[in-house]
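Entry 14. Structure prediction run on the chain below.
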Amino acid sequence: MSGKEILYAFRNDLSKYSPEQLKKISGKGVWSIGQMYDHIILVAHEYLDHVETCAEQKQEQLLGKTPFGEQLVQRGGFPPIKIKLPDEVNAPPNNSDSQEELINRINELIERLEQCEVKVDLINPNYKVEHGGFGWLNAKEWYALVGMHSHHHLRQQEELERSL
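Output returned:
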């Protein structure tokens, strides 16, 4: 499933949740479904910002990915494990958006993804931006990361739905 298809699925799934379900936090350290959506949207925009930064580069970067970054790209996705970020970069996502606000934000993200899709193949693959864990990624890799990251959260969505 492409990044865009996953986002369409997430958007369609929003109709299943009541406002209470969207904001329900089932335990300490657990996000609500709305928080998961907020996180996916924010991270995707961050990755697309990096696609645009790659497009603006003027100097090639010959450094590559970390071993984990290489594995991620070769595998085409994250391993099926929970990933816990350090507390300093793991603030709880927003839990106040309504269903309508999340739908609008996903629609804006899909539109931006489509705009990047048409130009990503034209960007020099040696124009890169560094990811803290994956190393130096080019525009195509940052673009693909939107889908990989979104797909990774499908398991979380299933867990959260079971707790409703």
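The mean pLDDT is 93.
Filed with the rest of this week's runs.
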